[in-house]
Input
Amino acid sequence: MLKLTSPATVVVLAALTALGPLATDMYLPAMPAMAGALDTGPDQVQLTLSLYMAGFALAQLFCGPVSDRYGRRPVMIAGIALFLLASLLCAFAPSIEWLLVGRFLQAFGGAAGPVLGRAAVRDIHGPLEAGRILSYMASTMALAPALAPVLGAGLLLFFGWEAIFVALSFYAAMMLLVLAFLMPEPLPAENRQSIHPATILRNYRMLLGQRAFIGYTLVNACGFAGLFAFLSGSSFVLIEFMGLTPFQYGIGFTLIVAGFFTGTLISGRYSHRLGRDRLLLLATLMCALAGGTMAILALAAVYAPWAVVGPHILFLIGFGIVMPQSMSGALAPNPQCAGSASSLFGFLQMTIAALGGALVGQFHDGTSRTMAIAIGLGGLLSLVAYLGLVRMRRVEVPQTVPARRE
Output
């Protein structure tokens, strides 16, 4: 068994958290090819991404509270097993309808990795150190979205789009073995919560009443909506509209993820020196400026890959800072229900992002305008949420629901 405080445990938790980015980013270069193979339109293929996010959001409402009662490890094992089976269903889906079902089930199982990975960090490292650990975890897991589109493009080129989901099944199988034989349980027995619906609802009501929790969550969710707008529309914009090959798209995506990686390193290095809120001010300003620049270029009919990739690199540097710091800020005051807090945080994040992605697909006009405007709005709203809810918040003393067993 691994030691909970060892660097190897951080790597394992990062690998589990990376399951979400892998399941979304690896098949992005294949989306146009999937539309042709399944005889459907771009809107239906984009729906596989939005439906994944919707399933991911819904699952989080359940897996967090259940893990608060029974522990993180058994819930993660069950979730990753479902992800494995659903990935195989996606690989052999005969129609777009079966693919949509597979993607929803894939999300429902895969949610356990990121949600409980965050909660486990809070369990092990406490409120102050969690921000720094989450930053370095994000740096580690940034390798997943950096490599995923290139790997996906290679699998598409040599084996077809189905091989992408077979590869995801293999990754899930490896994670199951690690969880079963190497990963200890991070949740202390004294922090176990009841799973009575009244207790869960009281926890959620308490969290929704915390101005700090809502503020940090919306800062993250609005920035993530901008990122998801890019995930939803970029393959059609850059490959179909601007003429990049799937491999060139993968290289561009890798450069963008390098921006995210840079942001997470900045977050980890300056977390103690500058403090969480000062970092978030700088990061949300960067997201708003970068997203606004992309939108202005698109509205001015500057249709070139650099006008999309360049601003989005800067957007992702900002979001690389936003993500771990906002997560830490939302989870810090809630040790007695870290699983529920992580669940609600992720539910709101994914729901807002899924709605944004669905709108990008619905109003896609064949150019980069819709996607760029959505990214610009995401950055701007993240800044507004910080200034209106985080920076101006009052000092609160959370009233957590006392832990009890059934």
Notes: The chain has one domain: 7-179+195-390. Residues 394-406 have pLDDT under 50 and may be disordered.
